[in-house]
Structures are given as C-alpha cells and as structure tokens.
Amino acid sequence: MARRKAACMALSLAVLLAAASAQASETVTVQVTILEGFSISGPGNIIIGALAPEEQRRTDMELNVWSNVPWELSVTLAEGSNPPMKVEVQDMEETWVTLSGTKLLYWNQDVTGSEGRVIKVPIRCTGTYGDLPGNYSFRLEFTVVPAL
Amino acid sequence: MRFKRFCAALLLLLLIGWGRAEARISVAPAIIEAVSVQAGRSFSVSCRNQGQEEVEIELSLALFARNSPGGVLLLEDELSKARAEAFLDLEPRRFSLRPGEVQTIQVQVAAAGFHQLQAALLVRAIEPGVSARLAVLLLLSTEEDGTCLGREALVPRSEFRPEPPGEAS
C-alpha cells in the first residue's frame, strides 16, 4: 500500500515537473505592425543678404528627410509669397528650375533608414533693374510625398 | 574696437543660430488605403513634433494623381481642394505641438458620393521662412473590390478630370 502511494506521488510529481518545464519553455508571439511614416526638418530661415541689380546670389540650404517608404520632394512658393526677383532652385539632376508653381526636386527616392537623408538644395536669386529697392521676404514650402 | 568686434561676432552667431532653428515633424501612416468606405468612417493620423521648439501645425486637403511611374502629383487648385473638402472632414484643423508632443488627426468621410477618392492630407509646419509639409495619401473606395485601389490603378494626370463637389465619380 505504502509502495503504491509512493509510486503515485512520484508519478504525480513527474507529471507536475513535466508540466512546469513545458510552461517554462513556452514562447509568446508578439505581433507588431510598422506603419508607413515620414518626417522632415528644415532650416527655418535663409538669409540671402543684399542683392544688387543683375547680381546673382546663391545659398545652399539643407533639409533632412526620414522615411520608411519611397518618397519625393517638391517645392513651391507659399501662398502670398511673391518675390520680385527671379528665384531658382536646383533639382537632383543639378538643373536650375525657376520657382513658379510646384516643382519636383527629388523623385524615385528610396527609404532613408533611421539616420535619415540630408538633402542639399541650392537656391539662387537674381536681381534686375525692374526690382524696386527694399527689403523682401518670401516663404518656400517643401513637401514630402510618399511614392506609390 | 574690441567691443565692436565682440558685438559683431555675437550678432553673427545669433544670425547663424537663428538660421539653423529647426522644426521637425513626423507623420504616420503616410498612406491610407480602404475599401467599402461609408460616410462616417474615420481614419487616424498621428503627428509628432520631434524638434526642439513648439511648432504650429496647419492641415488642409487636396487631391492627387499619378504623373509618372510611382510619382504623385498633388492637385491643389480650388476645384480639387473643394472636392476633397466635400468628401472629407478634418479635426482639428490647426494646433500647436510642444517638443515631443503627439496629436491624433481624425479624417472622417463626410459623404461617400464617390467610387474612388485619391485625396491628400497636407500637414504643414508653419514657420517664418522655409516651411515643411508632409502629404498623407488617402486611397479610398466605396466598393468592396479593393483592386480598384491598387497602386497601379491610379489615374494618370492626362486622364484626370476632377468633378464638381458632390457628384459621384
């Protein structure tokens, strides 16, 4: 009788231990969905400085783009911005494009990775004798769009 | 003389610092696709300020079309904006974000009088000089068959004919 009891207890203990070890090795599946997202930062202000008639001044500005989807970058003059002088920006093929309407600067751009991508955008302004002396400011608007 | 030089150097540093003041905003998701869309359905987009300073954000709606393989052309003419506004509601329209703060934007379908809608939610950081925008693309269909939303099925610019607001396409 005592032997049977001992055998039963040993068997129960073995089952419990097996169950416990099975629990210890159990894995948990964690499901996460990574969304398509992007981010941009700009320099805020650019100072071109004094511009004489028929003089051309160039400055380079930098934008940072982060994206885990392919993307494009375009530029436009913000609403209400109407600079008297000619304003041009350089696209990814180093072509100078005059700012009027929306201009595509970077296209077919791949994901940037976590470090992001620094985009250098040269801007140049050309003064003419048709421009009245004075202080002018205008706003540029850069737009990042996911590519489809 | 030294004082003048010091002042000039300080002014230069201030100008450089001013010129480099950066605002950084991020948005997710960048693309929203949905089928069987009905009026009242809403979509959430989160907007985060990852810069060092408080930033003012302004939202607007537009349409888009495809202008090259993979390329997206934003349609921001008055007609396109009116059509997008007729079908979609935004809440909030304008808000400010402190550094690290996140705002959830709700885009709600106000009227489902369309078969397909290719709209863009434009998230703009308002800054004095150069401002940055992020365009979230919405590809919505009122039909059950989602194949019409396939990214290859976008309407090329040459074929795009925006319709007056309120009329189903």
What does the model show?
The complex is a heterodimer of chains A (148) and B (169). Chain A has 148 residues and is of the alpha+beta class. Chain A has a single domain (38-146), classed as Fimbrial-type adhesion domain (Immunoglobulin-like, Sandwich), CATH 2.60.40. Chain A contains one helix and eight strands; from the N terminus they run H-E-E-E-E-E-E-E-E. Chain A has one helix spanning 2-24; strands spanning 38-42, 56-67, 71-77, 86-90, 96-98, 103-109, 117-126, 140-146. Chain B has one domain: Immunoglobulins (Immunoglobulin-like, Sandwich). Helices cover 17% and strands 45% of the residues of chain B. In chain B, strands 2, 4, 5, 7, 9 and 10 form a six-stranded mixed sheet that branches. The longest helix of chain B is centred in the N-terminal third of the chain and has 18 residues, at 2-19.
Topology:
The complex is a heterodimer of chains A (148) and B (169).
Chain A: H1 2-24, E1 38-42, E2 56-67, E3 71-77, E4 86-90, E5 96-98, E6 103-109, E7 117-126, E8 140-146
Antiparallel strand pairs in A: 1-2, 2-7, 3-6, 3-8, 4-5, 4-7
Chain B: H1 2-19, E1 23-28, E2 31-34, E3 42-49, E4 55-68, E5 71-75, H2 78-87, E6 88-91, E7 94-97, E8 102-109, E9 116-126, E10 130-141
Parallel strand pairs in B: 2-10
Antiparallel strand pairs in B: 1-3, 3-8, 4-5, 4-7, 4-9, 6-8, 9-10
Summarize the structure.
The complex is a heterodimer of chains A (148) and B (169). By secondary structure, chain A is of the alpha+beta class. Chain A has a single domain, classed as Immunoglobulin-like (Sandwich), CATH 2.60.40.1090.
The figure for the number of domains of chain B is 1
End-to-end Cα distance of chain B, whole Å, is: 73 Å
Overall pLDDT score of chain A: 86
Q: From N to C, what is the helix and strand string of chain A?
A: HEEEEEEEE
Please name the CATH topology of chain B. Answer: Immunoglobulin-like
If strands are numbered along the chain, what order do they take across the biggest sheet of chain A?
1-2-7-4-5
Assembly state here? Answer: heterodimer
Q: Order of helices and strands of chain B, N to C?
A: HEEEEEHEEEEE
Share in helix of chain B: 10-25%
Instruction: Estimate what percentage of residues of chain A fall within beta strands.
Output: 35-45%
The separation of the N and C termini of chain A measures 78 Å
Biggest beta sheet summary of chain B = 6 strands, mixed
| CATH H-tier superfamily of chain B | Immunoglobulins
Number of separate strands of chain B:
10
The CATH architecture designation of chain B is Sandwich
Number of helices of chain A: 1
Largest β sheet strand count, sense and barrel closure of chain A = 5 strands, antiparallel
Q: Can you tell me the overall shape of chain A?
A: rod-shaped
